Amino acid sequence: MSSIQNDLTMDNWLGRTFDCTCGQKHEVPIRHIVIERGAMEQLAGYVKEAGYSHVTLVADGRTQQAAGEKLRGLLEAERVHVSVSVIRVNTLGEVAADEEAIVQVLLDTPLSSQALVAVGAGTVHDIVRFVSHRTKRPFLSVPTAPSVDGFASVGAPLIVRGFKQTIPACAPEAIFADLALLAEAPQAMVAAGLGDMLGKHTSLADWSLGRVLLGEHYCELSARLTQEAVELCTAHLDEIAQRTDLGMRKLMEGLILSGLSMLLVGHSRPASGAEHHLSHYWEMVLLQQRRRALLHGAKVGVATVLMAQRYQALLGLTASEAAARLAQSAVPSEQSDAVRIRQAYGDMAEQVIAENFPADGQGLDARELKARIAERWGDVQAIARAVPAPEQLSAWLEAVQGPVTPEQLGVEPELLEASLQDALFVRNRFTILRLQRLL
Ligand SMILES: [Zn+2]
Ligand SMILES: [Zn+2]
């Protein structure tokens, strides 16, 4: 293994392309990351040095006040021409990453603007990442809350005609995370950031299941980085709970490292498993019912506890008990799954069916899979053992005053029940939910 793969320091990866032991070539397009008090002051110098004489700042009403105005002043003092796009709220009073917001940012960005600056949390970044990609302009990131691991990633989850889908877009050229700004973030957003990070415990376990049971491509480096990212956070939990500079810094580092680990492999597998599928399912239902959105990381945190309970349950089954259950359980087929998807997903069903049964017919033979699970039961249990106990995950969430139960989150029992049944179809990825229905 080359030295770059032994040194997990973040700066080591920036702007690098290298051949990995996993057989893939990895590339990190982000060139510069600053996490400190006064990071905003450094952005203007970076813009000047990069030769951008005209940039467009994109914010929402709150983040424009909290940071956008100041950034504008700093940039103008460096004689950079600044256009501003303050994204308007929708009829629910929320800023959403939807077609209206995208068109607004396009209209607010003059042709002469050479770069975009995202000033906000996850949603503002998702809008900017998409516009940046489609208009071939680089973007710079100024996170205003440590709430999500999407700052450094490439996928943009967008709501188009009321449906949420993740569109490939681009990563920022540089990130300026100002600790003074993060210290002012609402507590709920700090808790959400930790929730998104704790989800890595179950997403990594799900990826390992895919590797062991289906021979899925697995990158040790990306998995190690993700593990390191979540451990940075839990090792500094008191600091995060007290919102000290060190705590905010470690949480932000964890979130950015998790984003980098997704950039390496070019997909979200290291950082998104069944806990994210559950969260996406709740989000889609709230969207369809025109209810207010919940913070991404808050949903992921609660879902992580639920998935950890399912991993824990695997530890109580001996190999022969597991084999007996596998022999008795129903064998799902494409036909039976399609029926379930049509019942559960309404207008979205055809899209979900296409996701689960791609036209190239890579569908799994459930009988072979069951045999594999029985054969590799020891490995499955080892994966389950690496997931922290649900009580531990709950205690971490409680420490930062985040919601722990679906009830505290505002997910009612019927929605919870439906999601535990059908969220496995959100993505065609092997997870604990897909394992559990065969047992
Ligand atoms: Zn997430
Ligand atoms: Zn790799």
Automatic annotation (TrEMBL):
Lineage top rank: taxon: Bacteria
Pfam families in alphabetical order: Fe-ADH_2 (PF13685)
Gene3D superfamilies: 3.40.50.1970, Dehydroquinate synthase-like - alpha domain (1.20.1090.10)
Keyword NADP recorded: yes
Presence of the UniProt keyword Lipid biosynthesis in the record: yes
GO molecular function, one term: metal ion binding
UniProt-listed GO biological process terms: phospholipid biosynthetic process
Keywords, comma-separated and alphabetical: Cytoplasm, Lipid biosynthesis, Lipid metabolism, Metal-binding, NAD, NADP, Oxidoreductase, Phospholipid biosynthesis, Phospholipid metabolism
Name of this chain's protein: Sn-glycerol-1-phosphate dehydrogenase
Originating species: Paenibacillus sedimenti
